[in-house]
């Protein structure tokens, strides 16, 4: 690596040396990564067939909770470091660096760009938790944040602030570190779009050997298992919603139909690519999401207006206490919620970060990080305030099933809230559609990411390879539901979260490597 040079001292067209890419069956296979990942996935599925799902879940849950309990401080402090790191880059001279060089222009409009990164990042999570999470904190369903008394005005305020804490700056900073690192080394240094490229300043040519292989294999497994988990759990939520609205049996048959439909549409999307598929669906996604948000906000406008200011004030007041892992009186809560969330965001960061990098060429680092951190945080603030505030108000006034019985069924919580609102059936139908569309965007963008890693970092790998990964995600989710239902899916989720521990260290090293790389850039 030479200072003052726009490229690293390797030939950007020759990065496949030592990577053994092979063209076969219409695939562009990166042998070590593709082969090992495929083998491990097959081994996992066979083990799931042989081992009782409850036993597998208990074993993997044990590993997950041991990691969370032993390394809670590492997850929390790493999240804080990522936020500070991103904010520092926005304010630093490095913020003037343009991804792709001084003359680079953006490939996508600002609105389409935001729609894609938001839909891939956490769109489906907002549907699943925007009602259930604030209600859980307010009622003490699983303890309360910072040890406040449940079902009190203080608990109501903190429930909104703590929910926002889990979906605000910290997760987007985690995504931002990975996305910026990938985009910088790909577009400014001419390296392949793969996690290993980020570590070239630290590893040199060893990035193309086994150290790089291991990083990419972990990224593929975390992404694939995370997406399969979301498809499985999401299919259950969608089936619950369809049953709630249309009365169709929400059993295994409907769940499999949902996964098949989502997978088929995702295949169509990945075949069409980002411009013709992902971008179009993401734009539709955001239009439907804003329609639902506006309708709910207008129906309960008095509650919504008050909730927004309450959420913002509580978020600002409590961000430091919630970010401190030491001396907590609510250890069970912050390990079960905050540390779990941080581990989940970190395990998803290779997928979301790489997808954001793919669509972000032409943005300055300042523009990139400001948009990635602040715009989704602002949208999430509005969303959580409207839905969470409405749900807590129903609980306080004992309105509807959610208000009288509390949180009894997480996937159904949003639909229960809609039941007592004007146009409740219409809202539920829109919500079911939105859940399904969010799944399509997660599946197709995830397939493109895995496709890139397993082809050695190529941005446009063969179409059959894209289809292969999209189909495999759905097949894994169906197989797990068929074999072990929720137990098998949650076992897979525990396995995906366990990958967050090594990835936390990898992300911290990314920050070091990115600074070393940016110091060689002319701007």
TrEMBL record:
PANTHER family: HIGH-AFFINITY CHOLINE TRANSPORT PROTEIN, HIGH-AFFINITY CHOLINE TRANSPORT PROTEIN-RELATED
Organism encoding this protein: Shewanella colwelliana (Alteromonas colwelliana)
Protein name: BCCT family transporter
Origin: domain of life: Bacteria
PROSITE patterns assigned to the protein according to its UniProt record, in alphabetical order: BCCT
Transmembrane segments: 33-51, 71-91, 111-132, 169-187, 208-232, 252-274, 286-316, 336-356, 368-392, 420-440, 467-485, 491-515
Bilayer topology annotation: Multi-pass membrane protein
Pfam families with a match to the protein in the record: BCCT
Family that this chain belongs to: Belongs to the BCCT transporter (TC 2.A.15) family.
GO molecular function: transmembrane transporter activity
Species lineage: Bacteria, Pseudomonadati, Pseudomonadota, Gammaproteobacteria, Alteromonadales
Subcellular location: Cell membrane
Protein keywords: Cell membrane, Membrane, Transmembrane, Transmembrane helix, Transport
GO CC entries: plasma membrane
NCBIfam families named in the record: bcct (TIGR00842)
InterPro entries: BCCT_CS, BCCT_transptr
């Amino acid at each position: 690596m030479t200072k003052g040079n726009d490229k690293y001292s390797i030939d950007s067209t020759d990065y496949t040396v030592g990577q053994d890419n092979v063209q076969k069956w219409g695939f562009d296979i990166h042998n070590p990564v593709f082969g090992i990942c495929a083998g491990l996935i097959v081994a996992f599925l066979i083990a799931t067939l042989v081992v009782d799902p409850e036993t597998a879940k208990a074993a993997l849950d044990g590993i997950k909770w041991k990691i969370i309990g032993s390394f809670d401080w590492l997850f929390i402090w790493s999240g804080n470091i990522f936020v500070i790191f991103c904010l520092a880059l926005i304010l630093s001279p490095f913020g003037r660096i343009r991804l792709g060089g001084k003359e680079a222009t953006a490939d996508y409009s600002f609105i389409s760009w935001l729609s894609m990164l938001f839909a891939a990042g956490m769109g489906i999570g907002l549907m699943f938790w925007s009602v259930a999470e604030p209600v859980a904190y307010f009622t003490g369903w699983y303890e309360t944040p910072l040890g406040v008394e449940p079902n009190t005005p203080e608990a109501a305020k903190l429930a909104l602030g703590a929910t926002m804490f889990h979906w605000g700056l910290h997760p987007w900073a985690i995504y931002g570190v990975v996305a910026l690192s990938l985009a910088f080394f790909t577009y400014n240094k001419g390296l392949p779009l793969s996690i290993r490229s980020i570590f070239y300043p630290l590893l040199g040519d060893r990035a193309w050997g086994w150290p790089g292989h291991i990083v990419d294999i972990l990224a593929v497994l975390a992404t694939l298992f995370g997406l399969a988990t979301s498809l499985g759990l999401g299919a259950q939520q969608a089936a619950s919603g369809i049953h709630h609205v249309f009365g169709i049996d929400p059993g295994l048959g409907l769940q499999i139909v949902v996964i098949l439909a989502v997978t088929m549409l995702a295949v169509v999307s990945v075949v069409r690519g980002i411009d013709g598929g992902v971008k179009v669906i993401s734009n539709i996604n955001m239009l439907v999401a804003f329609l639902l948000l506006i309708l709910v906000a207008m129906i309960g406008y008095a509650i919504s207006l008050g909730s927004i200011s309450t959420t913002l004030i509580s978020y600002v007041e409590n961000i430091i206490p919630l970010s401190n892992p030491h001396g907590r009186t609510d250890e069970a809560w912050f390990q079960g919620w905050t540390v779990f969330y941080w581990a989940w965001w970190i395990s998803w960061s290779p997928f979301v970060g790489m997808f954001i990098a793919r669509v972000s060429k032409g943005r300055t680092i300042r523009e990139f990080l400001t948009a990635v951190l602040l715009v989704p945080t602002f949208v999430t603030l509005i969303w959580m305030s409207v839905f969470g505030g409405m749900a807590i108000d129903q609980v306080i006034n004992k309105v509807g099933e959610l208000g009288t019985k509390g949180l009894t069924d997480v996937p159904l919580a949003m639909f229960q809230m809609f039941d007592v609102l004007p146009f409740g059936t219409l809202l539920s139908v829109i919500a079911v559609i939105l859940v399904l569309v969010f799944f399509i965007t997660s599946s197709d963008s995830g397939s493109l990411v895995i496709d890139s890693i397993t082809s050695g970092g190529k941005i446009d790998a063969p179409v059959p390879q894209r289809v292969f990964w999209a189909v495999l995600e759905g097949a894994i989710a169906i197989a797990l539901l068929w074999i072990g239902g929720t137990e098998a899916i949650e076992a897979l989720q525990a396995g995906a979260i366990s990958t967050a521990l090594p990835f936390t260290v990898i992300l911290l090293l990314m920050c070091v490597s990115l600074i070393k790389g940016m110091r060689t850039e002319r701007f």
